[in-house]
Automatic annotation (TrEMBL):
Protein name in UniProt: Regulator of G-protein signaling 16
GO terms of molecular function: GTPase activator activity
Main location: membrane
Matching InterPro entries: RGS, RGS_sf, RGS_subdom1/3, RGS_subdomain_2
Gene3D superfamilies: 1.10.196.10, Regulator of G-protein Signalling 4, domain 2
Gene: Rgs16
Topology with respect to the bilayer: Lipid-anchor
Length: 203
């Protein structure tokens, strides 16, 4: 609305705005910008929220199938990151998580390409898990311990193979069956089964 004429209704408004401090005008502009951003975020959040629900549903189906696959074999359990985490939590209750930690350390060790890093990692793993009276000593026989010690002199990616295999067998024959019978895993399978049943009833 133009306000060049005296007595124009918009004149007082224009004069009022002119007399406002610059900080007030800047604040008003800032508020307008913020409201615009909030509105945009709200719309974006709604779109993301809808997309996330769809993705979550897919992830739940995948995780349900995964949980049930763990009982098929120990290999299936070790292939699953969630399975390894659940198994590790169970081993903690039996105070034997060092076996899985050693196995995982060996898997990581095999991926090492640098010969310098290979040697330093080998010594660290040996001192932490393998040597007699190690802080987190794994349950392996004396012969395997000595073979592993000798392997350190010319450390290769295979120097823990025998010790790792013995530890894996121990977990598979001893801890794994108890894990499958544990209350925590039984609860997980019930939830996974109920999600599968619920999905079928809605299709």
């Amino acid at each position: 609305m133009s306000c060049w004429m005296p007595g124009c209704p918009g004149l007082s408004m224009c004069q009022g705005l002119a007399t406002l401090p610059i900080t007030c005008l800047e604040r008003a502009k800032d508020l307008k910008t913020r409201f615009g951003i909030l509105l945009h975020k709200s719309e974006l959040g709604h779109r993301i929220g809808t997309s996330s629900k769809l993705q979550l549903g897919s992830r739940q189906r995948d995780s349900s199938r995964e949980v049930l696959e763990w009982r098929e074999s120990f290999d299936q359990l070790l292939k699953s990151k969630t399975g390894v985490t659940a198994f590790h939590t169970f081993l903690k209750t039996e105070f034997s998580e060092e076996n899985l930690d050693f196995w995982l350390a060996c898997e990581d060790f095999k991926k090492t390409r640098s010969k310098t890093k290979l040697a330093s990692k080998a010594n660290r793993i040996f001192e932490e898990f393998v040597q007699s009276e190690a802080p987190r000593e794994v349950n392996i026989d004396h012969e395997t311990r000595e073979i592993t010690r000798k392997n350190l002199s010319g450390a290769t990616s295979a120097c823990f193979n025998e010790a790792q295999a013995k530890t894996r067998t121990l977990m598979e024959k001893d801890s794994y069956p108890r894990f499958l019978k544990s209350t925590s895993y039984q609860d997980m399978t019930k939830q996974a089964t109920s999600r599968g049943t619920s999905k079928r009833s809605h299709t």
